[in-house]
Amino acid sequence: MITAADLRSLALFEKVTEDELRDLVARGGEVVFAAGDELWAQGGPAECWWVLLQGRIDLIRFAGHEETLIGAMAQPGQWAGGFTAWDEHAVYLANGRAGTDGRALRVSSTDLKAWTNALDPFGSHLIEGVFRTARTVESAARQRDALVALGTLSAGLAHELNNPAAAAARAVDALDGASQRLLDTVGGLAATDVTASQFRELDALRRELAATPRAPLDPMALADLEDQLTDWLDDHDVADSWQLAGPLAAAGIDVAWCERLAQVLGGSAAAGLVWVTSTLSVSNLLSEVKESTRRISELVGAIKSYSQMDRASVQEIVISEGLESTLVVLRHRMPAGVAVVRDYGPDTPPIEAIPAELNQVWTNLITNALDAMDGTGTLRLSTRPDGDGVVVEVANTGTWTDPTSRERAFEPFFTTKGVGQGTGLGLDISRRIVVGRHRGDIGIHLLPGETVLRVWLPRQHAEAK
């Protein structure tokens, strides 16, 4: 049973009166622990204040099944936790595991706040003000960052959508004229002595072009083919040969095909070639419209997947799908000199998670990787199974600005970017999502020629407790 005398010997309570110590003892409770006991969990709300009285408590961080000892409470009077007394979002940054047998005083954050208010109202008010101010500033900064990021993504999406939309609009406008020309060529063909049998053979030759896949020609070969076709058309007294040769060559039509058409139509070859050229123009424009609208549909689908509209907050997801939709959203920011390498393990299992929040993590990590490479390098995205979870790596060949700042990278407001360059690293938010919301882990690993942001996520989702 803890008494005021047990606390009196601790330097932490040197200036606390006897009555105040008795009040603290009454509000708290003794926790007797044995070596190996888990006293508190990483990522869980820091709802209790722990004061070591005897023994040792190791502070351990988890990354999947790997444990890292980051420190220890070994001196009586050392303390941890309790910050939800002033910040409802405060969490334990590591597991507290008993290294030896011992005991500790445990006080709830509610009782800790009440005790400090009674002990020193001004000091308690000052502490609460510091936390509240920091949280307000952080919240305002996050809202601003979110708005800036939303504006950037919206501008990028508008840019991505504008290209296929404009292409589709141009193709539709051109289709009006091409369709009219096609009708005119049908009339011109009908004005010749072409029989129904000949027209069927002509149409068969046209279908043969569409059914036969052809490798695209290089510019020199295409120019040579145009010259050959122009000469053939001139030899057969076809008017406007220079206008017809280009579309015919682009469709892969050669002189041998033209000879076959001449054998079918005889003196009506010119009208037949004009009709074929018109059908090719209409077909090409329709293909352009189809490709443009497909691209628009793909972008809309990627945005829907990225934002997770109309989806449950927690669901079973495939990590690689979230990474791919994030790449689509960030395509406008992808420099031409950056190569993307995908290394998605085929045996990577789906996991239960909040996909919209994880997509925010991937956005932060990929954006930072692109900024670090400054326009040139390799972005590597990989997934693989790891025990009862999965590991996701976002790696880049850029150089970490300051290796000593790696430990500070997950602090709120910390950034390695210059003034006016982006909205910060966003790693504090990423850590909160990965650790606090998904009970996972995130860390930075500096390898030769590569900076790796490694995220571990459990297969089963469970809110941090």
Describe the structure.
The protein has 12 helices and 15 strands. It has a 5-stranded mixed sheet. A 4-stranded antiparallel sheet has the order 1-8-3-6. The chain starts with a helix and ends in a 7-residue tail after the last strand. The chain is α+β, with helices and mostly antiparallel strands and 465 residues long. Helix 11 (355-373) runs antiparallel to helix 12 (427-437). The longest helix has 70 residues, at 121-190. It folds into 3 domains: 4-119, Jelly Rolls (Sandwich), CATH 2.60.120; 158-298, no CATH class; 312-458, Histidine kinase-like ATPase, C-terminal domain (Heat Shock Protein 90, 2-Layer Sandwich), CATH 3.30.565.
Distance between the termini: 28 Å
Number of domain modules: 3
Number of strands: 15
Which spans of ≥5 residues are poorly predicted at pLDDT below 50?
418-425
> How many separate helices?
12
Please report which band the strand proportion falls in: under 5%, 5-15%, 15-25%, 25-35%, 35-45% or over 45%.
15-25%
* Top-tier CATH class of the largest domain: Alpha Beta
Decide which structural class fits the backbone: alpha+beta
Largest sheet: 5 strands, mixed
> What's the CATH superfamily of the largest domain, by name?
Histidine kinase-like ATPase, C-terminal domain
Spell the H/E element sequence.
Answer: HHEEEEEEEEHHHHHHHEHEEHEEHEE
| CATH topology-level name of the largest domain | Heat Shock Protein 90
